[in-house]
Design brief:
single chain; mainly alpha; two-stranded antiparallel sheet; two-stranded parallel ribbon
């Protein structure tokens, strides 16, 4: 299982890597924010409260991809603008989370940060997932990289997400923490980069 010293090393690595990447990605992110603001006619950065380490809430940052209308799980693709669809498919909408990593709300690798009603309601051994900061990528994120397409095919996307996908994600993330190594994190970062 992940140890306190491993958590410290993980945090140092996250901070240093975010510090290195932000100067290179800052200008492209600003450019995308301007394009998205024009495209969606709303501010290009989208924020939302998510469940973080130890079930504490934090504000996640993303590039906005959806039109200004009511959105439904399983039908998000229909609400996305043309540019938004591209950003979602390439995961470039997650770029502002570098800031979340820098300030210590997130890690490069870990369970994806969920809305309230999921990770914060975990019981017993499953709460091990809350020991780490949520990640930009991770084993469950890689397995469910096409999650929106899977949900689109379901009669009841919300129920399928809660009963099938979420349960599987908990198992995957528990296994990640029980068998944690720094090398494993590097592997997931590399796989995520190659899977773009």
């Amino acid at each position: 299982m992940i140890t306190h010293s491993q958590l410290r090393v993980k945090r140092y690595f996250d901070f240093i890597l975010a510090l290195i990447l932000l100067p290179f990605l800052g200008i492209p992110i600003l450019f995308l924010i301007i394009l998205i603001t024009i495209d969606t006619k709303q501010w290009g950065i989208y924020t939302q409260l998510r469940v973080g380490q130890h079930a504490k809430l934090f504000k996640i940052y993303k590039l906005r991809t959806l039109k200004n209308e009511k959105h439904q799980l399983g039908h998000l693709e229909r609400s996305a603008t043309r540019l938004g669809k591209l950003l979602r498919h390439t995961k470039l909408n997650e770029l502002p989370q570098l800031y979340n990593v820098l300030i210590g709300d997130m890690s490069f690798v870990g369970p994806r940060p969920d809305l309230q009603g999921f990770a914060d309601e975990l019981k017993g051994e499953d709460r091990i997932i809350l020991l780490v900061k949520p990640g930009i990528t991770g084993p469950a994120t890689l397995k469910y990289k096409n999650e929106e397409r899977v949900l689109e095919r379901q009669k009841d996307p919300e129920e399928y997400n809660r009963a099938i996908i979420w349960v599987d994600k908990v198992k995957i993330n528990k296994n990640y923490l029980l068998n944690y190594s720094f090398y494993l994190d590097l592997t997931f970062i590399l796989k995520s980069t190659l899977n773009k």
